[in-house]
Each structure stands twice: as C-alpha cells, then as structure tokens.
Write a structure and sequence with these properties.
alpha/beta; 7-stranded parallel β-sheet; 6-stranded mixed β-sheet; 14 helices; 13 strands; elongated
C-alpha cells in the first residue's frame, strides 16, 4: 500500500485550525462564533507529545479539539490520565498507557474511538473495548522497515561482540593482536530461524539474505506458505527451530499463548553457538531462564530490544553479562517511521470519528 503519512488524508483548506486546548487557554480572545463552533467539535485527549506530523494533521483537520500530555520524556501520571479522559470522544495513546476497564469507566460513554500509536496492542484490554463498542486503530506496516533494520543491527552487534569490542578499545584492553580475541559468529552459511513469520520476519530475512545465509526456517501457529515463499523459508516445529537455528529471531506478537514461550525448554534445545534476538515483546521471554542459558553457556549470546519491565532496572542480572546486549525499545526509532506512525494514528482517529473505515483497524 503506497500510503505516505506526509500526504495521506490531508485537508488542503480548513476554515478553523484547531490547536491544543492549552494553547487556547493561553491566548484567549477567540471570537464567540469560533468558540461556539469549537465547543461542538469532538473532544480528543492525547496521552503523549506525539511526533509533529500527527499533531499537524489533527490541528489542520478542523474536525476535533484536543488536549495532550505535553511531554515525550515522562508518561502521563495515571491519576491525571483518569481525570483527563473524562467525557472525551476519542483517545490517542502509546504503549505505555494501560487502557483497561478502570480507564474506560473514567472516560465514560462518549468514548467511541481509540487510536494507539503502536503495532502491538498488549496494553489494550480488547474485551473491554469490544464490550463498549469502541473502535480501535493501530499502526502496523509503517514500522516494518525500521524494525527489520534494527533487528539486523542488533543481531550483528551481538554476534560480532561489538559492545565488548568498543569497551575494550576505550578501556585500554586493546593490546597486541590475538588469534581468538573477541571472535564471534558470522551469518555466512548459517541457518536463521524466525519465530512468528509476518511482515517484519520477512523483511528481516530479506535484509539478511545478502549475508549468504544458507537457510531460513520458521515456526508459527500454522504454515504461512505465501509469506514463506518470499524468502524461501521452510516451516518447522518449535523443537526443530531451536535445534537447527544458528540465529533465532523472535517476531511474534505477545498473546496468552506466546507469553514466556522462549523459556528453559527452548534454550536447552539450542546450540551453544547460537544467538537469540528479540525485538517483538519482552513478555514472550522468560528472562530468568534466558539469564541461566547465557550465564551457563547454553547459548552464545542474546540481543534484546524489549524486556519486562520497561525500563529494565539497571540492577537486573542480565546487565551483568557481556554476552547480552540490551537496547531501550528503539526498533521503530527513526524519524520517518515515528512521524509515519503518528500520522497514521491521527488519520485512524479522524476516520473513526466520522464513522468511516480506518486505514488500519483492529477487528474486535
């Protein structure tokens, strides 16, 4: 779908440009007719200072009035969030906000549309949303390239021990040349396993193929022949995925079925030269089991962009391991992707409020 956040669903001429409510409280002096027209517009609360493209779309639409938590550094406090959502018609959130029965009760019956700036939706109580008839938009597809790029970067950083190497260079450990110092594992002639084959899994494989990977294998709830044919991947069982993979990358969604699916049983079947990568959701990994596998040498290394909790406390045992690379959930952190996510979230919300099909809507 050749959709671009910078141009999609823009309204060229609007009679009223609706800025955040905070701005109106500061400037004041709006003509009475404009104030009356604005007061009849749907009320929207935005739980974070989302990237500018989405805010611009909402502002220039002339279709909503909105207020927002004006920070990107600290999430809105829960108590304030419960106050701010009272009576709103729509809500834009990010994955740090838990959208549950308590919040939906606080919002009240006016809330008809929820737009999350995320591809994951494990922070949403889907049953509660469905029960209340609230439509839900989300932002898949636009972050596929960014997540795939970061996954490859994390895989290479982990397998070629780049963090350790940088530390040695900075701390004076770089001495004479040694035959096996800081040796790692290369992709050439390897088998790459994918747990959960979707758009991102395919995109990762496409980027890894030029590294002369010998074979791609995957497992999922069922074979996915159409996607697998794009990367010539073979469907295998979970046990075969573990035992055959030189590199195992996790791309599945977090569901009750996948929670802690990467556990002692999986790690015990992996090669002691294998590299484990997770850029999906932290909850799919049993972190205690992962620590044991890494510290005992059961597997060679792990790269994580997601953890439980987030942020992971600096005292967590995983941070003590040289063979574990941990990033602060940055897989989609490119300027173009985050702006595209913001724009898609805004357009989903506007379409939902008009009763039209969203660009990307969760089917509840």
């Amino acid at each position: 779908m050749m959709w671009c956040g910078r141009v999609a669903l823009r309204v060229a001429l609007q009679r009223i440009a609706v800025a955040p409510l905070n701005s109106f409280r500061i400037t004041g002096g709006l003509p009475g007719a404009v104030q009356r027209e604005m007061s009849s517009l749907p009320r929207v609360y935005i739980t974070r200072q989302i990237p500018p493209e989405g805010l611009k779309i909402l502002s220039e639409s002339g279709q909503v009035q909105f207020d927002l938590w004006d920070s990107d550094d600290v999430p809105v406090p829960r108590k304030e969030l419960l106050q701010k959502v009272k009576g709103v018609d729509a809500l834009v959130c990010v994955l740090t906000e838990k959208i549950d029965a308590e919040l939906l009760d606080a919002a009240g019956p006016n809330l008809k549309v929820l737009s999350t700036m995320s591809v994951g939706f494990d922070h949403l109580s889907l049953e509660e949303l469905k029960k209340r008839g609230i439509r839900v938009g989300y932002t898949p597809d636009v972050l596929t390239d960014s997540v795939a790029e970061l996954t490859v970067a994390l895989l290479l950083t982990t397998s070629r021990r780049l963090i350790e190497a940088t530390h040695e260079a900075k701390s004076g450990g770089w001495g004479t040349w040694r035959t096996l110092w800081l040796c790692g594992y290369e992709l050439a002639n390897s088998t790459v396993g994918i747990l959960g084959l979707g758009r991102i899994g395919v995109a990762i494989a496409e980027r890894l193929k030029p590294f002369k990977v010998k074979k791609f294998i995957y497992t999922d709830v069922a074979p996915r022949p159409e996607l697998a044919s794009l990367i010539d991947a073979e469907y295998v069982s979970m046990d075969e995925l573990a035992s055959q993979s030189d590199f195992l990358t996790v791309c599945c969604a977090l569901t009750p079925e996948t929670k802690d699916i990467c556990n002692k049983d999986l790690f015990s079947k992996m090669k002691n030269t294998s590299i484990f990568i997770n850029t999906s959701r932290g909850g799919v990994v049993d972190q205690e089991d992962l620590y044991e596998a890494l510290s005992s040498g059961q597997i060679a290394g792990a790269g994580l962009d997601v953890t439980v909790p987030e942020p992971l406390p600096t005292s967590h045992p995983l941070f003590t391991l040289n063979n574990c690379v941990i990033l602060p959930h940055i897989a989609s952190a490119s300027y173009s992707t985050r702006n595209a996510m913001s724009a898609l979230a805004a357009n989903n919300l506007l379409l939902g409020l008009k009763g039209q099909p969203m660009i990307k809507e969760l089917k509840l």
